[in-house]
Please model this.
Amino acid sequence: MSFEKCVRCGSCLKICPIFDAVGEEQYSPRGKTYVLQVMDLIEEDEELGKEFRRLLFQCTMCGRCKEICSSDVDLLEVWHDSRGRALKEAPKEFGYLDSLRDALANVQNIYGLDPEDRAIYWLDELRDIIPGIEDHVYEEGKTADVVVFLGCLMSFRYSQMDVLRSFFKSLERAEIDYLVMGSQEFCCGHPLHLMGDEEGADVLRKHNKKVIESTGADYVVTCCPGCLIQLSMHHSLEGVEALHHTQFFDRQYDSLPKYESEEDFAYHDPCELHRICDVKTEPRSLLAKMNVSYKEMELSCCGGGGLLRMTDPDLSDKIIRLRAASEHLRKYTVITACPSCREQLLGNNLETVDIVELMDAALEEGR
Model:
């Protein structure tokens, strides 16, 4: 097993957001891998085993420990596999995940809402701005160059409406031939993947794959890095390239109008985007094309990943509060490119903006 290569050097402690927030060894990557190495002893103690299974979900799955590991331990894979085993071995201990799993199985979104609502909330908001936008909603037989994969957060959370508005205006301005999946978009499966339930995730992926490929599209574009992980690495799409919206728009524009503002900006790299999907240059390229000056933030987690907001919301909030204090974020408007990071920032009263909002404003002013 990969975790057996851990030499317990402690490098991961310095960069782990969980250890930084709690300060206890058992929460750290090193502490968890040590427990895995002595599992045969722990399994004899029911309470210790239960505590360790709980600790597996005290993690944002940001991947920074994997990135820094000098022993080349694939810690993301270790946490993924360990969570899956824990879920199978002791399902009653994870009853708080049942509602999420039931929602994804029954209505294919994390909120348990009617699938038809995926194309209602944002559509009603955008009809006056983009006449005929309802014609871009998928129906069997429709084709397009680009399929838009909104994801659960972007579809159902009103807090994402400003980003959606700018995103669709940008598609229209660039005269993109696109379709939105609407009620035929199932959750990408990322929440189930994060808890190690690949069987459940595969059911959702197979449906999405069929719908996306039926459109004859060349690209599927999403604003959500979690969705991008699933679309690009786990959906097995044939002839369709999965792109983050910053990648897509960076290809569309060789230059952009200057974004005029006196705001002080800081750029936050979403962990799943820059570390797992390796999308680092395109967001910065778009900002450079708009001549936006910004402070580079630490390459650390906002605390909103890995299901932590569900498994331990207090710990999730503590992580972003510590970052806000250490990096003086209340002095800045934080630029990001992830709906989950946006939720985390807004939930802690931090000013935030998506790159596509800046791009939309620059193009509007430039016209």
User: Anything to note?
Assistant: The first strand starts at residue 146 and ends at 148. The CA atoms of residues 117 and 240 lie 26 Å apart. The chain has three domains: 2-95, 104-252, 265-366. The chain has a mean pLDDT of 94.
